[in-house]
Amino acid sequence: KVCPMTKMNSDRKKIALLMPFFGGSHRQWAEGWQTHSRHDIHLFTLPDRHWKWRMHGAAITLARQLLSAGFLPDVIVTTDMLDVTVLSSLLRQSFPTTPIILYMHENQLTYPWSHTDPDTTLQRDRHYAFINYTSALAADSVWFNSHFHQKSFLSALPDFLRAFPDHQEMDTVTAIQRKSTVMPLGLHLQAMDKLTSEPVDRPNRAVLLWNHRWEYDKNPDDWYRWLVQLRQRGLEFKLVILGEQYGQYPPVFDQMQTTFAEDILHFGYVESRDEYYRWLYRADILPVTSHHDFFGVSVVEAMYANVIPVLPKRLAYPEHIPAAYHTAFFYENEKEGLNFLHRQIMNVRLLRKQRTDHFVDRYDWRHISPRYDAAIDELT
């Protein structure tokens, strides 16, 4: 007979988790899985800057890190910001049969490029989408963080390939589809529970929340325009404006700070997660106008703090709430969304009695990590 402890240890796999962009939600995801997994996860990382260069060069640097570490992985996991074709060629001799999993946080095929990015004008932007495509083709398994992400990427691939002059290899789309699955992001949601016993200082007026990155794809311009129109209608509210900033940020945030100076409770990035969570618990309503979101970490975190979302019925958001409740949270167009938000502000006292945490509790690591670990077991 095999000792149960011996069997448990033999089931513990060694995972090399290669992170080309180790910061923000990518870092939280990697460290979260490492903390909660029953497997032995070693991180190999590069700083979260120069994303275009990471897509070209990270495979070389991280392959060198792995080879020099003396770590013998059962599985290699990396993300969409790394070229898996380069990685596998460099590791072939040392790890000829070790499977590679590609985790798709985002992709450059369906991600909306900024009009200010020179690569769009110079028609160099397609190359990064091609790296995502060949990486998915070369990986043994492809994990998407949402059904929306999986569907949008696979649906866009045929037209992408048709743009090339010949040998378009359409059958590769089916090959990628067969080895792809949805593995939602794991989040430290339970870490927020310790703050629920703290008293919350709420103003009489509704508190509207922004807790996304300060970037164009989150569409802060329309968000600001909504605020202006609501004020023109005579509505009073307070604002909590959070979010991480990467280099230059949209100038509308400066307009926001000036126009609503007397109504802003907080403006800018906070250093600690607990401080961030405390601001979530002080907010009432999360109006969302984003152009794109493959998952929506900030939306899920706010919902776990029982901030009532006002969401566009597109992107990944409908996956977070059962269909039977969609009429209570989603809008179909801009006019409907603004009127919806108007009503929510007027009924803030009623909103403060509602809960949304139970919709997203399933994304906590205690539920997600076993799914990841089981998938690793199946692959090995």
Summed up:
Helix content is 43%, strand content 15%.
Folded structure, characterized:
39% of the residues are buried. This protein is α/β, with parallel strands linked by helices and 380 residues long. It has helices at 4-10, 24-36, 51-69, 84-91, 118-121, 126-138, 147-162, 171-178, 220-232, 252-259, 273-282, 297-304, 334-346, 348-351, 357-360, 365-379; strands at 14-22, 40-47, 75-79, 100-104, 141-144, 180-182, 206-210, 237-241, 264-267, 285-287, 308-312, 330-331. The protein contains 16 helices and twelve strands. The protein is globular. The strands form three sheets. Strands 2-1-3-4-5-6 form a six-stranded parallel sheet, sandwiched between helices. It is 43% helix and 15% strand. Residues 1-8 have low confidence and may be disordered.
Biggest beta sheet attributes: 6 strands, parallel
Q: Return the average pLDDT rounded to an integer.
A: 93
Q: How does the helix and strand content classify structurally? A: alpha/beta
Straight-line distance between termini: 23 Å
Strand content: 15-25%
Number of helices: 16
Give the low-pLDDT segments: 1-8
What overall form do the CA principal axes indicate?
Answer: globular
Beta-strand segment tally: 12
- How would you write the strand order of the largest sheet? 2-1-3-4-5-6
